[in-house]
Amino acid sequence: MNWDWSAVDAFLPRLADGLLVTAQALALSALLAFGLGLVWAVAQRSGPALVRGPVAVFTEFIRNTPLLVQLFFLYYVLPEWGLTLSAMVTGVVGLGLHYSTYTAEVYRAGIEGVPRGQWEAATALSLSRGRTWGVVILPQAIRRVAPALGNYVIAMLKDTPMLFVVGVMEMLGEARQFSSETFLTVEAVTVVGIAFILLSCPASFLMRTLERRLAR
Amino acid sequence: MPADTANAYTDTDAGGRAQGRATVGTGTTADELIRFDRVTKRFGSNTVLDSLDFRVFPKKHVTLIGPSGSGKTTILRLLMTLLKPDEGTITVDGTPLSHEERNGKLVPAGEKHVREVRKNMGMVFQQFNLFPHMSVLRNITEAPVQVLGMSRDEAAERALELLDMVGLKDRSDTYPGRLSGGQQQRVAIARALAMRPKVLLLDEVTSALDPELVAGVLDLLRDIARTTDITMLCVTHEMSFARDISDCVMMFDEGKVIEFGHPEKMFGDPEQERTREFLSAVL
Ligand SMILES: Nc1ncnc2c1ncn2[C@@H]1O[C@H](COP(=O)(O)OP(=O)(O)OP(=O)(O)O)[C@@H](O)[C@H]1O
Ligand SMILES: [Mg+2]
C-alpha cells in the first residue's frame, strides 16, 4: 500500500470545509435534540393524557428505528409529500430528532431525581406550573444530567458521517468526493478518522471532568 | 348548607364541644379562616381521615397531636392542596379549595383558583425543602416576585428584614447546602413568611434537627406566635412548645378529633383515656 503525503496536503483544505459543516450540523442538531428532548420529557411528565400517549409512542418509535432509515425517509419521502428541505436541514432534523428521543430519557431521569419535596415547596409557595418547572425543577434536573447530555453530543458527533447519505458535505462527504476525483481513498479516509479521534477524545475527557465536578 | 347557620357556633371557644365540631376561636361562619366539613381521606382501603370536622378562627394557634399515622400530616397536606380529599369540603378564608363559582355555577376548582387560595397559606416542612440551587436570598424572594408581583428590590429588602428576624442576615448570599439544619429551617420559615400568609402550617419542623439546634427554631416560632397575627396549625412532638404557643390542642386518633381544648386542660387533665395514654408515652 502506498501512502502519499502530498494527497494528505491536498485533502486538508477540503477537510477544513468538511469540518465546518460537521460542526454546524452537530451544533444545530444538538440544539434540536436538547430542545425537543426537553419538550418530550416535560410533556410526558405533566402534559394532558391526550398528549402523553402520542408522545410516548412517537419517541419509542423513533428510538427503535435506525437513524439511517430515518434519514432516507426524510430524504426520499418528504419531497413526495411536497416538502423539500435542503441537505443540511434534512440532516439536522434527522439527527436532532433521533437523539431527542434519547435526551428525553436523560431529562426524564433527571426530573425524577429531583426530590418530591421540591415540588411541594414550589406548590406551597403558589408558584405557577411554568415557574415551578422553569426555576425549581429543570435547573436541578439538568444539572444532574449535564454529563449524560454531553455524552450524547459525542455520540452525535460520531453519527454525523451518516448525514452524507442525504448530501451533507461533512468530513466524510468531502473525503468521498476527494477520492472519487483523485482515487486517493486511503489517505482521505484515514485523515477523517484521525480528525474524529482528535475531536472526540478531548470532548470525552471534558465530559468525564465535568461529571466528576458535578458529582462532588 | 342551610342547617349551618352562623350563630350555631358563636358561643363555642376552645374546649366548647357542644356542637361536636372542634372549634378554635369565636365568631361567625364568615370569620372562619379554616373549615373542614366532613372531610374523608383514604389511601386505598386505609381511611386516614373519617368525616373530619373542625374550624379555626383567625389568629389562633392550634397544635395537632396524635399517634403516628393518625393523619396529622395529611390534614396539613390537604390544606396546602398537596392532596385532595375523597369527600367533604375544605374552606380557607371563606373560599372552598375544591370548587369555584364560574358564571353563577359551581365547577371543580381550576389551577388558578387553587393557586389563589394557596396564597393564604405558608408551609414549613420537616425536611426544609429549600431550593438548593438558589442562594438563601433568592429562596426567599422568588415567590414574592413571581407570585405577588413584588419588585426584586422590594422583595430583597423584605427578605433581609426576615433574615434579620431569623438571625441569618449575614448569610443571604450563601447556598442552603452550606447551612446547618437549624439555619436551613429558619430560612424556610423566612421563606414562608415572605408570602405574608394568613396561615402558617408547620409539620414537625424540628424533627429532622440535631437536638442542640431545636431550641433556636422553637424560640423563633414562639416569637412569631407572640408578635404576629398569623394563624398557626402546628404538628409537633415538642409538648412544652405546644403548651407555650397553643390556644388549642387537638388530639387525633382513628381519623377523628377525639378531644380538643386549651393546652392546660389537655396536658393537665385530659378527658379521654386515649389522650392520657398518648401523652404519657410522649411526655
Ligand atoms: N401518599 C400516601 N400513600 C399511601 N398512604 C399514605 C400516604 N400518605 C400517608 N399515608 C398513610 O396515611 C396515614 C396517615 O399518615 P400521616 O402522614 O398523615 O400521619 P401522621 O399523623 O402525620 O403520622 P406521623 O406522626 O408519623 O408523621 C398513615 O397510615 C400513612 O401510612
Ligand atoms: Mg406526619
TrEMBL record, chain A:
Principal location class: membrane
Membrane-spanning ranges: 20-43, 81-99, 188-207
GO cellular component terms attached to this protein's record: ATP-binding cassette (ABC) transporter complex
UniProt signal peptide: none
Keywords tagged on the record: Amino-acid transport, Cell membrane, Membrane, Transmembrane, Transmembrane helix, Transport
GO process annotations (BP): amino acid transport
InterPro entries: AA_ABC_transptr_permease_3TM (IPR010065), ArtM/GltK/GlnP/TcyL/YhdX-like (IPR043429), Ectoine_EhuD (IPR014341), MetI-like (IPR000515), MetI-like_sf (IPR035906)
Compartment list: Cell membrane
Segments forming domain ABC transmembrane type-1: 15-207
Gene Ontology molecular function terms on file: transmembrane transporter activity
Presence of the UniProt keyword Flavoprotein in the record: no
Membrane topology listed for this record: Multi-pass membrane protein
Family membership: Belongs to the binding-protein-dependent transport system permease family.
PANTHER family: L-CYSTINE TRANSPORT SYSTEM PERMEASE PROTEIN TCYL, MEMBRANE COMPONENT OF AMINO ACID ABC TRANSPORTER
Protein known as: Ectoine/hydroxyectoine ABC transporter permease subunit EhuD
Gene source species: Streptomyces inusitatus
Automatic annotation (TrEMBL), chain B:
Superkingdom, taxonomy of origin: Bacteria
Any one of the GO CC terms: plasma membrane
Topology with respect to the bilayer: Peripheral membrane protein
A Pfam cross-reference name: ABC_tran
Domain ABC transporter: 34-279
Residue stretches of biased makeup (Low complexity): 1-13
A GO MF term: ABC-type amino acid transporter activity
PROSITE patterns: ABC_TRANSPORTER_1 (PS00211), ABC_TRANSPORTER_2 (PS50893)
Family as reported in the entry's similarity comment: Belongs to the ABC transporter superfamily.
Protein name: L-cystine ABC transporter ATP-binding protein YecC
